[in-house]
Amino acid sequence: MGRSQKKILVTALLKAANLNKSFGGVRAVYDVSVDVPAGSIFALIGPNGAGKSTLLNLLSGVYQPDSGSLFFNQASLIGLPAYERARLGIARTFQKIRLFKQLTLLENVLTGFHLHQDVPLWKCFLPGGAGRFRGEAMDLLSFVGLGNRANDRAGALSYGQQRMLEIARALATRPKLFMLDEPAAGLNAAEVEFLLKRLQNINQQNVTVLVVEHNMDLVMNVAQRVLVMDHGVRLFEGNPREVQANPRVIEAYLGGAFAS
Asked: Longest Cα pair distance anywhere in the chain, in angstroms?
């Protein structure tokens, strides 16, 4: 009797098929399909104007597609606004930092736990209003290197520290899928290295990570799969080594940076 062989099936946590989005006469995303494997770190790259942020906005609920299908954990996301997707376990950060800059770091992170409470957001800031989450919020601040600044005002942080605070706040929603839009933008080399390690740590906690990024050193060192877009269409998908070697990707985006 032949030895039985086990097949390893990779399940797509997020599955998009034939997504389209136009703004007036401008076609931003055209017939794009993508499967984001559960438990992976998945990167989305491409030149400026490639449609990356528009696709991320479609996935997160900022925009609704003109056509196409979108499933998260086999549940359709079409028609669901961003806040309802957040309740399903989808969190994201933005290119432009969106913090409550007059609030403390701790208060900013506590707002992320609002999804797990049946009270108005403002009650989180009353004495004891979010007491059961304060320990977890402090842990998240420590995770992003800001544990000693919990009571400082968010607006007093450096740009890189504000990026880290935004990540901590998003993690407070306890996501299953965490999407980040240009998280390395404006960071110095040491901050990029710290970010890379944090993304790996997040992924090790059974969180699927999808990152839109221009920093190719970060992408090639952290991602298991990479989708390349150009002019709103899907150009190529593969592992980092395949992406670096693909002639169409080199011509459209990478130039000579990864050419042999």
From this structure: 70
Contacts of 222 (CB under 8 A, 6+ apart): 41, 43, 196, 199, 200, 211
Evaluate if pTM is beyond 0.85: yes
Express each pLDDT in 184-199 by its tens digit: 999 999 999 999 999 9
DSSP 158-175: -HHHHHHHHHHHHHTT--
Domain ranges of the chain: 10-89+176-260, 99-174
Q: What's domain 10-89+176-260's superfamily in CATH?
A: P-loop containing nucleotide triphosphate hydrolases (3.40.50.300)
Kind and range of the H or E element at 107? helix 105-112
Helices (H), 172-239: 189-204, 216-222
* Selection from 158, 66, 54, 169 nearest residue 108 by Cα: 169
